[in-house]
Amino acid sequence: MRTLTVWLAWGLVLAGCDGTGMPEPSPEPEGEVLTSVCGADAEKTATVMSGAYTLSWQSEPDPIPLNEQFDLLVDVQGADGAAAGTVSLDADAAMPQHGHGMNTLPYVEPDEATPGRFVVDGMQLHMPGDWKLYLDLTVGDDGPTERATFDLTCVE
Amino acid sequence: MRRVILAWTLVVCGGCPDATDGSPPLTLVEFSEDEMRRVLARSPLADAPPDETNAWDGDDDAVALGHALFYEPRFSSDGAVSCATCHRPDHGFADDVALSETLGQARRHTPGLYNAAHGRWMFWDGRADSLWGQALGPWENPAEMDGDRVSMVRTVTGDEELRAAYEAAFGALPDVSDGDRFPAHARPSDDEDDPLHAAWMGMAAPDRQTVDAVFVRLGKAVAAFERQIVSTHAPFDTFVAGLRDDDADKTAALSESAQRGLKTFVGRGNCYFCHTGALFSDREFHNLGMAGGVYDLGRFAGVLLLVDSPFNAAGPHSDDPDGPRAERLRFVTSTLEQEGQFKTPSLRNVALTPPYMHDGRFGTLREVVHFYSELGETPLAGHREDVLIPLDLSPQDIDDLVAFLESLTDEQTVDARYLVPPAP
Ligand SMILES: [Cu+2]
């Protein structure tokens, strides 16, 4: 088996490779805990119902921490930025490749202060790997409903 | 994060002619970028997060009292069983039999307690959400210590040392000497026929509250003690420190076999999906789809018990009923998906604590790894998570994984005083 030397010092790595004098980074604090996050470069906007509505979300905290609870703020806009009218939202997430969802049951509430905004409380992506975030938009009291799906990868 | 990403430029130029510089190699096994990131995420283990629901968490007087209570057999109905009877300090604070036999037979296997303060949920089914809420269970469980809270308060009041230790931490004890108001034995119970339940219900509500207040504080003292049961400096941690420090003397703490096992753990073995972070546990619940054994709904029932418990993080005895721990309770759920799920155990000190799993079905680590390799039959309860696929490990692969799991052992960090009852 080929043996690989693992060098974690950035300066050494570069120097070892091409000998150019690159600036050395400041040393990281000892015992630093690596933070694991989800969806660092995820798409955060989608349109549903042939473009009649635009959904966009942001997480609190941002980025989404792996295996910790977080909230989503979801803004729903009608075409041309018009207010969304009577719509409701459902939120869920799952790892389809693993055949499981979240261990939490989130609640969705309209944000009274901001028209078209919903607050999703109690999301938690407990496992590293590929998740799907599902935002289901329902227009009026009894539909139609259409789902916007976002890819979120959790990296440990 | 930055350091690791930058460091991996190295992989790209892994073939640098004089990358080794003549110095000994840091690792004996080649790790991919993803694997190495996961290795680094598994050490060091930070301090357990504070438990705001326990105002005495971290209080030295509470630790001293909790130390005594953990080893205290007089709380049991036969005066012979303490927490340490099942959670044996010489066995990683676990029991060495599948199901502990004391005043009855425990329903599930007695787990180890190293680093238990890191837990988000307690018990295999997570029916408690703090160490103090957990501790109140075994004291009164008829199959475990079979004690009762009224006599516990009396035992503490009547014992000079326990009384002094209690009052140092919590202040004056109430007077429970009036036998008309405080029967000799009384506890609430789900079993309506339990005579102790009738005795408890016969007490005046304020007197019950008086007893509960002391009972809960005893739990909070034990919890403060349990936070001291830590294990953070295993050979694996030395290995990771060596990776960070570029120190081959340190990375030599893991044999080549253990390094191969580690690579399987963070790679094709998929172990890293659930045994995450430096605790080697996501502190959450999964269904491994183990067949046979006793039908056990696991987390499904645990959620219902937790939400109903007067001793949960949002309840009247919590010191932070609106805090983050209580907040978690709002979002727990009990659906078909929770059926047959059990808490992912930490793997630190796992070699000390056979047998394994919630029912103690496997006698050795080799048997556990063999299970993950084969998986086998249809589960009794719920459905197995699809991340688990038969790994078809060779005997060598299995040896390697076991060697790696054994490298997670550290019994030196814990203060040796805590492995025995307090000196009189
Ligand atoms: Cu998964």
Protein chain pair with the most extensive contact, residues per chain: A-B, 47 and 56 residues
Categorize the overall geometry of chain B.
globular
Strand order of the largest sheet of chain B: 1-2
Query: What's the Cα radius of gyration of chain A?
Result: 21 Å
Backbone CA Rg of chain B: 23 Å
How would you summarize this macromolecular structure in one to three sentences?
The complex is a heterodimer of chains A (156) and B (424). With 156 residues, chain A is mainly beta. Chain A is built from 1 helix and 11 strands; from the N terminus they run αβββββββββββ.
Question: What labels would you give this structure?
Answer:
A: 156 residues, mainly beta, Immunoglobulin-like, six-stranded antiparallel beta sheet, 1 helix, 11 strands, B: 424 residues, mainly alpha, two-stranded antiparallel sheet, 2 strands, disordered N terminus, binds copper (II) ion
List the helices and strands and how they pair.
The complex is a heterodimer of chains A (156) and B (424).
Chain A: H1 10-18, E1 37-38, E2 45-48, E3 53-60, E4 64-65, E5 69-78, E6 87-95, E7 100-101, E8 107-110, E9 117-124, E10 129-139, E11 145-155
Antiparallel strand pairs in A: 1-4, 1-11, 2-3, 3-5, 5-9, 6-7, 6-10, 8-9, 10-11
Chain B: H1 2-7, H2 9-12, H3 33-40, H4 60-70, H5 83-86, H6 131-140, H7 149-158, H8 160-170, H9 195-201, H10 205-226, H11 235-245, H12 248-251, H13 256-266, E1 285-286, H14 299-308, H15 324-329, E2 342-343, H16 365-374, H17 395-406
Antiparallel strand pairs in B: 1-2
Helix pairs in contact in B: 4-8, 4-10, 6-10, 7-8, 7-10, 13-17, 16-17
The structure holds copper (II) ion.
Copper (II) ion binds next to loops of chain A.
